[in-house]
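Below is how a single chain appears once it has passed through the pipeline. First comes the sequence as given, then the structure the pipeline wrote out for it. We keep one example in the README because the format questions we get most often are answered faster by looking than by reading.
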Amino acid sequence: MKPFKKNIHCLSLTIATWLLYWPLLLSQNTLALDDSSRMAYYQTVLKSPKFNEAAKADSAYIFAQVEYAKANYQQARDLCERALQSRPNWGNPHLLIGKCYASSGVICDPSGRGAGWDAQVLLWVAFDEWEKAISIGDSAAEDARILMEKYATYLPEEEYCRRNYSLGNGDEYFVGCWVQRKTKVRLKP
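Resulting structure:
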């Protein structure tokens, strides 16, 4: 019974935050602002003493969803990390960060196709985030499992990794581009 009450509480906070901020976002044309102005607006809201930490976490996550929809993946990740500062045991920000990484193939692949090595390694950091969402065990866990199953087909093959990069399953790897994170190698099952 407690997990159900907890999820209802999170849902009500999210709905309350949407009801609170969407009029502000729309009335101030925040969605139409340039990136730096929009981020400045977010920071003003997130630093406001008017709201408790739960409302700030919800707000940061909502703002992250806006940035994800605009393909501003680094800003979306930063906002998700802000949400996690206020609510560390929340799977949704980890889920969205993973989606940001998985969606960055075209940005990080020098060929621009989003299908090369630089796109594949992004899945490793995406899997890191989705595993965090699963370990938290809230409503995001099932979505994270589904995404991992979907993207597992795009992981590099063992033969290719060993031959071209001398990497094996579980080896440490640093993902560049905008991500700038250490991860571990994951190979196609």
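The beta strands are 172-175, 181-184.

See the next section for the split statistics.
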